[in-house]
# Entry
Amino acid sequence: MAEGFFRKYAPTGYEPYSAGTKPTGAINPLAIQAMKESGIDITIQTPKTITDSMIREASKVINMGCMDRESCPALFVKNVFDWAIEDPKGKPLEDVRKIRDTIEKRVQELCKTL
# Structure
């Protein structure tokens, strides 16, 4: 969801790299639905595993939240912004919408600083 919002709000010249330590095989269908309600289609995005080069090349590293403390990027990366946002996995649509709205606000705030 953050990648979708970043593509919408970021200034020209910025490119998001959205990845995780243990990505699932597909995007959460409720996240897709919630984002469509906001006018953003994330169906073309794919879950990716975070790489060292992604971190090295990034001008800012945002950690959405850590579900697995053993492999949490926030523990190993310097100057990471940890937003501590809940994982929408397994949550009902109402909760996914709240998570979506929180992510949108945070992305908008971030984009104002770029």
About this structure: The first helix runs from residue 2 to 9. The chain has a mean pLDDT of 89. The chain is about 40% helix and 5% strand. Residues 2-90 form a domain with the Rossmann fold fold (CATH 3.40.50.2300).
